């Protein structure tokens, strides 16, 4: 009688890899048994499958030219009909070519939420800086202003060998570190910067770039010097000196320019005060900064191990930025479906902004002998800003016209201190954790403002038009103070092999005070007397207090699945007090905050997660100051001290797949967010007037839905990289107009595709296409729909003539249509070109001749649109136009002497 093993048909499958883990194609797999002999070849992914196998005594051999033969024997006791073989590793056959060893570096490795790029697997030009190298890595994009995107999301901070580099500043690292110093680049997902891992968090993770230096580059000195002059009085100069000594780091960088080049981003990828940009803008070769800017910056950073288990780093940065912006805008506010009460405000403006920003930060980390961790992070900043603003405006409402000017000049002084302290207790019992943290914030602002508002008003309603003049001049002194404290305590206790409980307690208190004195400069009784407007004066105290007590349960049965569910109670109390009127406002509420989520690793390359988060958003000072602020006579703001705090509920799901053998990455996310007690504007306009009044109220019904995807892969070979991404956002926004509820529905869709092709060692090209749809509809005073379209096509190429000369060109063409104002529907063509010549030993000197915006069309590209409530706002600002520049760059490098 035959045994079951001899009569039953079987299937055997598996993968063949090399010693680096790369899957091998065209491997010959030969199987023999007592009844069968079968030979198959592994696929491009190193996969093989053999079906219909019968008999016993199964033997399998794996062979490939250049590799040692591997033999496997299947146990006679294994009678399974479906068998998955462990990965078979083929080792190089060194005897085939004596003295020659071939080692292949895996380009991309994924471990958990971390993606690692091994730089030796990529080819970069000699002396390339990190910014240029990042542009060639799959899944990473770099915009013209230096913002780095990884897997579609901006990088918020940078580290070198696990330590913050220059306070985490992204631009300083990417524009100073040489690419050939770097062993690997890691993209990390961090929910916070604490050294101790927290089991649960309600914050979205941020992306951090960690740079791992090569072993022989951990003790080096390097730097660069750059100077350049150009037409239209353009100039640039920068210097950077950096020293790494196996853990000790010192950096000094400085820059001066009027070419809209910022050396520092202060931890924010959007720089200083610019509007948020997205991945859609990455390959638009326009200069993204409005106005003409003169920027001076200086910074230094120091990091060292004070003791064996004590790390210390500190950084200081200073930026002086002077911006001069000219522009024009149109704001249309609809209050009547028959257009009898619709206010239009057309403005031409000139603004000068002088911003001086100092930032001093430090961080101390200490690990005690019992492995407890202490972190102390103080950050002090001081911001001094002077603003001069002049606007010529024409305001119309039916037959009423106001033609005049609005001027204001102001100075702001804003010191700010943040102090974060964290202590993490380590226990002998595995999984048990205790972590406590406290945070303090002290912020104050002093503002002096001189406002002048005057216009000629013409009322054409009667037969004989009525002409009147209006003039108002206020001198405003305001002091704001915000002091806050937060404390949290977390205790995690494992109570079984797979389960843990976390007990959470958070407490937060914020005190705000505002004192404001308004002087009417047009009224006085005696020459040296001051006439104060009591109705505009403020003496206001506000306190926001909340605590949160919660319990989270986490279940981790294996390495592939993790789930958590929790519940928290959050009492909230807002109190405000007006000493002048002896009035107190109080709002109390209890929020019930459920949390839940899971992460499931479907296989080694695929994971899926679902998360729910709840969060409080308190009203800001503008929303709650209970005064009628008419310092801008056409737009009166009235605060509402009885506002409640918002509470948002967000659920999101993410699917990620990484195919290591092909260098492919796919990610998609869907998120739904509902906000209870949403703070919205409540606008009122009166027939026969051009004045609008805005106050605020709470309402329900706001929600937004967001979806995005991204996919990057190599095509044909590693020299061709394709990146595809897209997103669709839907907003159901609410507002009130003349006490009528208005719903603004906005749909934004963007699609981007980029192809990067390295033709050879002497030619690189990039092709890009982006499409953006912006559709907005609002219901009051009548249903109105605005649909804007924008299409961008761009290409860039770089060629190397011999070893010392480089030619490059960039071109982008944008097509805009559907916007309300004609100046929004322009179609600019941007062309940039440059010639580079390298010389001196090791090409350390670089001479560059650059032509920017050869057709001089960038100067008209500062367009901006916004559709909220019953408002349609569109504006255009000037930007930097065509110029030519010659720059000289010298790279300084010093290595330790070999022993």
Automatic annotation (TrEMBL):
It comes from Sphingobacterium gobiense. It comes from the Bacteria. InterPro entries: CarboxyPept-like_regulatory (IPR008969), OMP_b-brl_3 (IPR041700). This is Outer membrane protein beta-barrel domain-containing protein. Residues 427-778 form the Outer membrane protein beta-barrel domain. Signal peptide: none annotated.
């Amino acid at each position: 009688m035959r045994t079951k093993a001899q009569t039953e048909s079987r299937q055997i499958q598996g993968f063949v890899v090399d010693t680096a883990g790369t899957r091998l194609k065209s491997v010959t797999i030969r199987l023999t048994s007592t009844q069968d002999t079968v030979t198959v070849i592994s696929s491009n992914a190193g996969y093989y499958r053999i079906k219909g196998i019968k008999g016993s005594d199964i033997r399998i051999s794996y062979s490939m030219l250049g590799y040692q033969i591997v033999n496997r024997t299947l146990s006679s006791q294994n009678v399974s009909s479906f068998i998955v073989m462990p990965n078979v590793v083929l080792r190089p056959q060194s005897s085939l070519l004596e003295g020659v060893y071939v080692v292949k570096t895996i380009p991309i490795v994924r471990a958990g939420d971390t993606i690692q790029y091994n730089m030796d697997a990529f080819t970069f030009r000699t002396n390339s800086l990190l910014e240029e190298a990042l542009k060639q890595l799959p899944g990473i994009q770099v915009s013209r202003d230096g913002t780095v995107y990884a897997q579609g999301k901006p990088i918020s901070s940078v580290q070198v060998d696990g330590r913050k580099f220059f306070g985490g500043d992204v631009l300083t690292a990417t524009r100073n570190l040489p690419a050939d110093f770097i062993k690997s680049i890691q993209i990390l997902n961090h929910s916070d910067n604490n050294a101790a891992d927290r089991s649960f968090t309600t914050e979205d993770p941020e992306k951090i770039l960690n740079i791992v230096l090569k072993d022989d580059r951990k003790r080096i000195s390097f730097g660069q010097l750059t100077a350049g002059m150009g037409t239209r009085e353009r100039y640039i100069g920068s210097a950077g000196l950096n020293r790494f000594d196996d853990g000790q780091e010192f950096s000094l960088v400085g820059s001066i320019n009027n070419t809209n080049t910022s050396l520092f981003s202060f931890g924010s990828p959007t720089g200083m005060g610019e509007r948020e940009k997205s991945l859609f803008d990455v390959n638009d070769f326009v200069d993204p900064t409005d106005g003409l800017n003169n920027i001076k910056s200086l910074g230094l950073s120091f990091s060292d191990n004070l003791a064996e288990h004590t790390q210390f780093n500190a950084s200081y940065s200073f930026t002086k930025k002077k911006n001069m912006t000219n522009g024009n805008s149109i704001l249309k506010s609809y209050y009547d479906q028959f257009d009898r009460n619709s206010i239009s405000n057309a403005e031409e403006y000139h603004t000068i902004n002088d911003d001086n920003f100092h930032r001093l930060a430090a961080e101390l980390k200490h690990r005690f002998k019992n492995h407890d961790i202490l972190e102390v992070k103080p950050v002090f900043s001081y911001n001094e800003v002077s603003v001069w603003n002049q606007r010529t405006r024409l305001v119309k409402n039916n037959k009423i016209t106001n033609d005049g000017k609005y001027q204001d000049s102001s100075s702001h002084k804003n010191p700010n201190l943040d102090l974060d302290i964290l202590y993490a207790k380590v226990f002998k019992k595995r999984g048990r954790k205790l972590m406590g943290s406290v945070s303090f914030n002290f912020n104050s602002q002093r503002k002096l403002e001189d406002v002048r508002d005057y216009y000629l008003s013409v009322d054409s309603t009667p037969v004989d038009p009525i002409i009147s003049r209006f003039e108002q001049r206020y001198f405003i002194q305001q002091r704001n103070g915000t002091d806050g404290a937060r404390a949290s305590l977390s205790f995690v206790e494992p109570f079984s092999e797979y389960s843990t409980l976390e007990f959470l307690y958070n407490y937060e208190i914020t005190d705000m005070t505002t004192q404001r004195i308004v002087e009417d400069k047009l009224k006085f009784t005696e020459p040296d007397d001051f006439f104060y407007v009591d109705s505009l004066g403020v003496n206001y105290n506000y306190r926001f207090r909340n605590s949160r007590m919660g319990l989270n349960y986490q279940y981790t049965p294996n390495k592939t699945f993790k789930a958590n569910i929790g519940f928290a109670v959050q009492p909230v109390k807002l109190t405000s007090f007006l000493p002048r009127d002896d009035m107190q406002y109080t709002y109390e509420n209890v929020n019930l905050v459920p949390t839940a989520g899971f992460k499931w690793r479907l296989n080694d390359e695929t994971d899926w997660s679902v998360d729910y988060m709840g969060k409080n958003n308190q009203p800001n000072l503008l929303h709650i100051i209970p005064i009628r602020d008419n310092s801008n006579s056409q737009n009166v703001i009235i605060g509402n001290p009885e506002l409640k705090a918002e509470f948002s509920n967000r659920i999101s799901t993410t699917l990620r797949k990484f195919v290591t053998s092909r260098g492919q990455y796919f990610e998609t996310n869907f998120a739904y967010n509902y906000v209870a007690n949403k703070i919205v504007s409540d606008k009122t306009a009166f027939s026969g007037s051009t004045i609008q009044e805005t106050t605020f109220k709470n309402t329900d019904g706001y929600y937004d839905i967001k979806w995005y995807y991204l996919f990057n892969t190599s095509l044909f070979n590693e020299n061709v990289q394709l990146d595809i991404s897209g997103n669709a956002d839907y907003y159901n926004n609410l507002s009130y107009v003349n006490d009528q509820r208005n719903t603004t529905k906005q749909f934004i869709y963007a699609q981007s595709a980029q192809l990067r092709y390295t033709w050879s060692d002497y030619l690189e090209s990039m092709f890009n296409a982006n499409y953006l749809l912006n559709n907005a509809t609002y219901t009051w005073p009548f249903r109105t729909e605005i649909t804007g379209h924008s299409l961008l096509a761009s290409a860039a190429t770089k060629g190397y003539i011999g070893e010392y000369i480089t030619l490059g060109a960039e071109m982008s063409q944008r097509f805009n249509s559907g916007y309300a104002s004609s100046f929004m529907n322009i179609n600019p063509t941007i062309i940039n070109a440059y010639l580079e010549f390298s010389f001196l030993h090791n090409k350390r000197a670089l001479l560059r001749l650059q032509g920017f915006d050869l057709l001089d069309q960038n100067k008209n590209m500062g367009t901006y649109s916004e559709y909220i409530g019953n408002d349609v706002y569109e504006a255009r600002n000037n930007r930097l136009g065509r110029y030519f520049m010659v720059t000289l760059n010298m790279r300084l490098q010093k290595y330790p002497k070999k022993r």
